[in-house]
Every structure is written in structure tokens, then in C-alpha cells.
Amino acid sequence: MKKINILLLSIFFLMIQFPVFGEDAAKILSKMDAVLFASEDQKSTVKMVLINRNGNERTREAVIWQRGSDKRLFRFTAPAAEAGIAFLSLPDDVMYLYMPAFGRERRIASHVKNQSFAGTDFSYEDLESVKYSEKHTPVLLEETEVHYILELTPLPDIRSDYSKVIAYVNKKHHYPEKMKSYDRGGQKAKVAEYTFDRQDGYWFIQEIFMTNLTRHHKTRMTFKDVQFDTGIDDQVFTVRNLTRY
Amino acid sequence: MKFAGLVIKYRYAVLSLIIAITLVMTYFAKDLRVNADVLSYLPDDDPSAVLFNRIGDTFGGSSTIIIGLSGKDVFEEDMLQNVRQITDSLRRVEGIGHVTSLTNVINIRGSDFGIEIGRLIDEYEIPSDSLILDSLKRYTLSKDMYRGNLVSEDATATVIAGKIRNGFNHAEVVEEIREKLSDLPFKDMIYYGGMPHTLYELSNIILRDIKSIVPSAFILISLVLLAGFRRIRGVLLPMITVLIAIIWTMGLIAMLGFEITMLTNIIPVILLAVGSAYAIHVMNAVITEQQHAPKNALCKALSYIIVPVFLASITTILGFLSFIAGSYLMMIREFGIFSAIGILFSMVLSVTFIPAILALLREKETDSIKPVQSNFFDRAPEVLSGIVLHHKKKLLAGWLLLLIASLIGITQIERRVDLIDYFKKDNMVQKGEGLLTEKFHGSNPLYVSVSGDVQSPEVLKLLERTQDFMADFAYIPYSQSVADLIKQMHDVMGEGELIPDDPFKIIQLWFLLEGQEIMDQLVSPDLSEGLIQAYVSSVELDVLREIEDSFDTWVYKNSTEQHRVAFTGIPVMLKRLDKSIINSQTYSLIIATILVIIMVSMLLGSIRKGLIAIVPIGITLIILFGIMGITGIPLDIATVLTGSVTIGIGIDYSIHMISRFGKGCREGLDLEASLKNSIQTSGKAIFINMISVSAGFAVLSFSNLVPLQRFGFLIATTMLIAGMASLTLLPLMLLNTSSTKKSTIKKKHHNEEN
CB pairs under 8 A, 24+ apart, for B391-396? Predict the structure, then answer.
């Protein structure tokens, strides 16, 4: 009797976890990760357009080097006064900042991940390149003609600024088209809309349009000159390289 | 005669018309809205109001509501959770732009872990460990940015400040916040402060008080009228007339799309005092005539009384219209115009509504006149006329003494602009503002704006210099600008807490601050203007004067073509508001006095009479202000208005007395008899009006608002002084100035006999 009860209970829980049968949520998420982190390394230029409440726009440009999913260098190139400012992200939340006017680097405390990155609507956490499946429990909420709608809840030991993220994953190509993030108070805080393009056999983000609902501010990030697997040297991701400008 | 006949003939038409208008006006009056935002009364082109509004547009709000939270220790997990909850509630109010509290304030620090530009406390991970809380407390209290600004020095209280976005109704925003917070389990620890809240509470109490006190005032006035006239209609008709006049005036205000302001809400009071006088004079004349010759009494009484009532109202109307000329503030103009219109309504109704009703009633009763025994209201004027005729010197000496005492009193008169004084000691506004003044930097925001490229060292250094200058004032304990943040950033980069000269350094430090909520409050979106935010802990007039003067000088010395410095804020606007109200009141009182002299002189055909008519008013004003000086009632936005009531009521009393005196003389009575007659007829009406209205206003002493208490006391006093001046001093002057005439006539007579 007891055994049957436990069985029924686990079936019940399984049903809650996977309300819609078909492709399973974890699989969808890992496929999405596979698309997002397909290449070994990647170099691109990014244009960030910051749009404030009144619709005024400001533009910044940067070059990004990335290797694997945990090493990244962001170096700003425009406007001129900000050229040379650089951020280096290394594994285990180690982050360095370099400001050429001061000629020195500083470490950035790891617990400011929820702060805005360079005035954009992306927090340090948003820009973190960690696989979604490593940080979240996915649940498939709904399957439409074009999307899997996943609800991603941070794993218990993960420190996140969001209580959940709703991801709209393209059914055919498994890249996300829209992500809605909810703050820890449960309020919808940000909406990111993605445009993907294909090059050298990889799908890559061509544009992210992020709307910050609390700040009434928007950011459009457009990626250009994308190069894959050029064999970026490990030396790029060092403090020494960071300060060489 | 003609007019009186017409009213009586067409009484049905007159009454129907009055009822119809009243219905329409009631319809409009019920939608009347109150605008308690004192600051919105400044004209749209007032420089400090323009800047205040522009700052509101550019920096996400300029008016601030402050929530205080007081307990044993702010740095306990529960308390910080409460702060977070309040912060959250405020954020969800639509009209609130920025919220600043312990749980969302920026924190810049350099540490072993690297530089940190984040929050002081992570609102979602509030520490529970007492060691961490302790070190957080020490750190927070060590920084000027938080100590006294967000947390009290003894760490028993903290504040959460919300900026109200432009274009939102302050009262509605405050109400929503109050509603939200009153559901919280720790609501007893919450205090409220800031001008929007003070004004919200002020208008609420005024409305509540008016609802509870006005009816008792009406009842009291009615009782006095009943004692005076001893006829129910003697009570009902004047009261209904006043009521209709009030409805018409308020309806008109609403119909024309105006809102009730702190000044126009006094109009019912003025109509009650002045408007009822017209009705009482008409009633009194009718009753007097009926006692002498019942036949056709209504028509006779009307044809006599209509002239003085008309004259009295015209001069009073002019007196109120003079407010338009001397005023800088829109609300004073509105007050002048609508008071004048209200007086006009009262006058028209007194000579149409009352006779029409009386004519209607006459049809039904035949034995309407029963002679009644004389009572206090008949005997008092008699006694007074006796005093005037037989104790001239004593009377004069008495007035002189009062005048001298008042002149001394006037020198003691205090000036105040602090709205907080308006509340009783146990009111929540007093408590909230008390907490904010005692443990924090006060609740009245002061802003200094500097224009120019905010990322340039010049502008940042100008901001810094201005803050240093502000720090010299004891009542501006702390100020904040983007210069502070840049200095802190420069410090964590290891180069000292100062503004770097290298513009590249500034821009790169700035880069890290971007996206922080606080930046939107300190820098304009196009980076062309920086703002210094401060609070002023005192709004004593001396303090405001000093701020205005020193800041004016500072602005003058430091503004250049590229970098304009300007300042504004609640204290500045309060000062300007107060100054313009007092100025325009003084100005209007002077204009009104001159106008009245001219009018009365023309109407009564003698400049001397015009001058005589104004004497009781002038003396009443002096005594009124003298009493304020002696009793310590300050001259403020509310109390200064008693001056206009004095003018309104004083003119009426004078004209009635003078015209009745003239009538007596023309009818062949000698001076003393004519005087006695005027005191006993018109004087009786004045006496009834004076006693009833002062009794009614005395009720205001039970108000929950100090200014209403004072206002009630002052109006009651004014009525008594103005009445007594018209009943004793004016006759004395009429007697003395006419006696020369009398003696010349006598002489002439004597010569002719010879």
C-alpha cells in the first residue's frame, strides 16, 4: 500500500515537473545552451544604444573576445573618452576593470553582479556566460506552433537576481527569441528580445533588445564582425593584456 | 419703492428663478475640487516655481514624501525587512518616481575584494547575523551620506524618501501610500513627513472640521438671531439667504473650472459674516416698520433699506476687487473676485429672496405682528446710545487706551510660515516632522542647479564649492550631488577624495556610476545640468530670509555664461508665497481703504463722511493686529485674511450707521435723537449681526487645526471690535463733526432771529 502511495506521489510530482509531455524541458534547455555556446571562441564588435525614458539615445562600442563559456574581455572603443575601458571576466566570478585614464586595473567585487553594466540595461549577471542549464531548473510551460515556453528557476545554491525567467525557445533552431526576467519580489523586471543570424554554421545573436521595466530604460545591443574559432590565445584573458592599451 | 413693488408683485417668478439657479449651482458645487498644494498657487512664471517644476521634470520629481520608521534598532533583520517592504510599497505607487532607502541606496567602497559600486544592503538578502548587522551599522553610521540622512545617529530611526513625479496629484499619491502602509503589521512604527503629506493632512482636517464645526456655528448663529428677532423667520430667512449665496458662489467657482484654494475656502466664512449682515438689516428694517405701521410695512421698509444695503455691498465689493490690483498670486485674485461675487449674490438675495418670501407668507397670515417685550438685543443698543451721549470723554479715553495698547502690541507681532505649527501637538504631522527635524535633516528639500557639461571638472568643482558653501549653514547639515560620487569613486581608485582635473578620469569614473538610480536624481539625462539636493531643517522666517539672501549673493557671484547657478525648493517657495501674500494683503488693504473713502464720499455726498466711515475700520484693523501681537498669534497666510473680513464688515456697519443717521437728520430729528434712533434701529441689526457671527466663529476654537482656532478667535474679535467701533466711536465722531454744522446752523438761526 505504502509503495503504491509513493509511486503515485512520484508520478504526481513528475507530472508537475513536466506538465506537457513531448520534448522534455531539460533537453530543450541543453539544446538552447548548445546553440548559444557552440563555438570554441568568438570575437565580435558590439554597438550598444542606450535609450532613456524620454527616448534620448547614446551609443557605445566595444570589442569582445570570448573563449569557452567563462573567459571574456570587453574593451570599449567609442566614444573616444571611454575608449580603452575594459572588463575582464574570469572563472569563479573574478572580474577586473581597467581604466586607461588611471592606468591601472582594479578588481570588481563579485557581489555587485546585479548592478548595471556600463549604463546598459544588462546587469553583470545578464552578461555572464554561464550555461542556463547549469544554473536553472527548467519547466516546460507551454508549447506553441513556434516556441517552447520554458520557466527557468534558479537552482537553490545559485545566487541570482531573478526569481524566474520565462524563455521562448524557437522550436526549430533552439535559440531563445524572448526572455522575461522576474525580480526576487516576483515582479516582471526585464524583457529581452533576441534576433539570431547564421554564419559559418553557427547561430549567433545579431541583436538583443532589452527593456528594463523598472528603470523605464532600454538598450539595443547589436553584434557585428563576428568571427568564430580563430584560436584566441589564453594570453588575451590576462590582467597584463587588460592593462595594455 | 418701485423695485420693492416689483419684487413683491413678481414674487413667484423671483422665487422660482432663485430655486432654479440654486439647483443648478448645487449640481456644480458638489463637484468642487480642493487644491491644497500651496506651492501651485505661485504664478506659472515665478522663477522659483518654474525651476522647481523643471527640476521635477528633469530629475524624476521635486516634491518629496518621507516615511520615517522608528524602533529600537534599525540594524535588526526585522527592521530592515520593514524598510524593504515600505520601499517596495512606495515603488509600486504610480505617481512615485524615485525611492531612496537603506535597502536600495548606492554604496561606493573600496575593499580587499575590489571596488564595489553597488547597494548598501541587498534588499533580497538582508543579513540576519548579528555580527554582520553590527558591522553594517558601524559602516553606515560612519558615512555622511547615510548618517542623519537615511539613519538617525542613534540608529533608532530610518527614513524612506519618495519623489513624486510631475503631473501627478499629490493628495492622491499620498492617499495611496497611506492606504498601502496602513495595512502593514508594523504601521505604528511609521511616521510621515514632507510637504505633500503635510498639505494632504491639512486639507483633510480642514474638510473634517468644516463638516463638524460649521453646522454648530450655524446653530449658534441661529440661536442668537432667534434671541435678537424672536421670530423664526428672523432666523431662517437670513440663514437660508446666506446658504443660497454660498451655494451660488461655490457653484460658480466649480462651473468656471476653478478649484478651492486655501484662500477661497474662506469665502463661506466671509459670506456668513458679511452676507448675513445684509439679510439681517433687511429683516430688521421690515420688523421695525411692522411694529410702527403694519400696513404696507414690507414695501416701506424695503424702499428705505435697499439703498444702504446696496451702498454697503458695492463698497465691500470694491474692497474685495481691490485684491486683484495688488496681487502677485493667482489665488488672491480668485479670492478677491469670488468674494466680491459672493457679496453681490448675498446683497441681491437679501433684497429679492427675503421680501419675496415675506410677501408669500403675508398672504397666509393676517396677525403676523405681535408686539414683543424688549430684551437684551433691544436694551443693549439703548444702553450704548446712552453711553455715547452721556460719557463721551470716558468712551473716547477707552478707545484711545485700546488703540495705544494695540499699537504697542503691533510691534510684538510675529511672522511665521511654518505649516507644521498649524497642527496640534499630538497630530501625526507634528510627530512625523518632529522625528525628521530631531533625528534627521528635516523634510523640506532645497535644490541648487548648475548648468553646463556635468562631466567637466569646472561644473563638478562648482558643485563641490557650492556644497561647501551650503555646509556653513547650521540648518543645512548635508547636501548631495554627483560631485560627491565622483569624489568617492576617485578615492576608491586610490587617488584621494577629490575631483580630478583630468576630464578623462571623470568620464571613466562616471562610466561605472551609470545606470545607478541615484544618477537620474542628480544629473539631467543630457548631462547638461547637475543638481545639489539638500534638506533644510528649519523654516523659521529668519532662516528662510538668510538662505534667500546668501544664496542670491552666491548665485550672483558664481554664475557665468556657461555655468548658470540657480536655487529653489520648498523653503524658498514658502518664503516667496508668504511674502507675496502679506504684500498683496497690505497693498489691497491700502487700495481698499482709499477706494472706500472715495466711494463713501461720493455716495454720501461728503468727503468728511467718507473719512469718518473709514475710521472704525482702521481702528479695528489696528486693534486686531495689536491683539495678535499681544496674544502671540502670528501673522501668517491664514490670519492675514482677517484683515479683509474687517474691511468687508466695517464698511457695512459704517454705511448703515451713517445713512440711518442721515435719514434721521433729514426727517427733522435733532442730532442726538437721530443718533439714538440710528443706534437703536441700524445699531440693533449691527448688534445682532456682531453677536451672532462672533458666537458662530467662537465655535472654531474647537477646531483640530491651530490656524482655524486662531481664525475663529480673530474673526469673532474683529466682529466685536468693528461692531463696537460702529456703535460707539462712529456715533461719537458723527456727533462731533456734525456739531460744528449744528452750531453754525444755530448761529445762523440766532442771527436771523436777531
Answer: B392/B732, B392/B735, B395/B728, B395/B729, B395/B732, B396/B732
b/e for A14-49, b at 16 or more Cβ within 10 A?
eeeeeeeeeeebbebbbbbbebbbebebbbbebbbe
Q: Test B115 with A107 for CB contact under 8 angstroms.
A: yes
pTM of the model: 0.80
Q: Domains in chain B: how many in total? A: 3
Per-residue pLDDT tens over the stretch A80-135: 888 999 999 888 778 888 989 988 888 887 666 778 888 888 888 888 777 888 88
Name the strand (E) or helix (H) holding B163. Answer: strand B157-164
Instruction: Give the span between the Cα atoms of B181 and A98, in whole angstroms.
Output: 45
pLDDT in tens, B720-754: 999 999 999 988 888 877 654 444 444 444 444 44
Residues 6 or more apart whose Cβ sits within 8 Å of residue B608: B737
Q: How many pairs of residues across A and B have Cβ atoms under 8 Å apart?
A: 87
CA distances (Å), origin B550, targets B391, B415, B443, B446, B574: 57, 20, 21, 14, 17
Distance from CA of A233 to the nearest CA of B (A): 26
Q: pLDDT grade, residue A2 (50/70/90)? A: low
Nearest CA in chain A to B104: A115
Instruction: Tell me if the bond preceding A79 is cis, omega within 30° of 0.
Output: yes
Contacts of B213 (CB under 8 A, 6+ apart): B699, B700, B702, B703, B708
- Pick from A223, A172, A167, A171: nearest CA to A195: A223
Measured at the CA of B156, the angle between CA B153 and CA B157, to 5 degrees, comes to: 85
B14 and B76 share one domain = no
Residue B170 lies in a domain: yes
Q: Does B124 touch chain A (CB under 8 A)?
A: yes
The verdict on B133 and B271 lying in the same domain is: no
Residues of B in contact with A88 (CB under 8 A): none
Residues B71 and B27 in one domain: no
Q: Are residues B237 and B148 in the same domain?
A: no
Question: Considering all CA atoms of chain B, what is the largest pairwise distance in Å, rounded to the nearest integer?
Answer: 121
Beta carbons of B516 and A110 less than 8 Å apart: no
Q: pLDDT of A20-34, one tens digit each?
A: 444 688 888 888 988
- pLDDT given for residue A22 in this prediction: 46
> Which of B347, B364, B381 finishes a domain?
B364
- Domain contains B294: yes
Residue B614 domain-assigned (yes or no) = no
> How large is the ipTM?
0.83
Q: A149 - beta bridge partners?
A: A142, A168
B117/A contact by beta carbon, under 8 A: yes
Interface of A with B in 82-111 (CB under 8 A): 82, 85, 95, 97, 99-102, 104, 106-111
Domain annotation for chain A: domains and CATH numbers:
21-243 (2.50.20.10)
Q: Do A109 and B515 touch (CB under 8 A)?
A: no
- Structural domain boundaries, residue B464: 443-569
Residue B373, helix vs strand vs coil: coil
Question: CA of B81 to nearest chain A CA: how many angstroms apart?
Answer: 13
